Amino acid sequence: MSDKNLFEQALSRGETDSFFKGNGDYFVRDPDWGVHVYAALYGGHVQNFINSNSENSIIFEESFKDFVRSLKANTDDAGHFFGNLSAIIYWKKNSELSEILPLKSGACAHEEINNYIKELNASKIDDLDKNRYKVEISKYILDGYSLFEG
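Given the sequence above, the corresponding structure tokens read:
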């Protein structure tokens, strides 16, 4: 693995959406399933970026907000959305990222997260996928993260 910080690279290249989606240079392959492992980028690249400068948590949060606002109500984007939420929750529970990542009431991406969930619920995505998303949301609530407060 290279010493360069992939989140910094994504910022400098205007590729933060690709970073959050695991496209191109930002794809981390799961050795068993061959899918992108969202959490792998948070534990190293995001954590190191945030820890390197006191202003970087704001930069990360703004990038995450932009990412969530860019998502469409379709199964691909919903998969990226929930993949990132899962990664955030994992790292909030298991690292120094607990205070700065955007899943607490009043956090900067809170409104964007709520709006995207509402958009998914109102979309024409089939009921099977909507039910799967509701299960995902329930997991976050059970983990103590209210996604519906203002």
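Residues 75-94 form the longest helix (20 residues). Try to locate this feature in the token string yourself.
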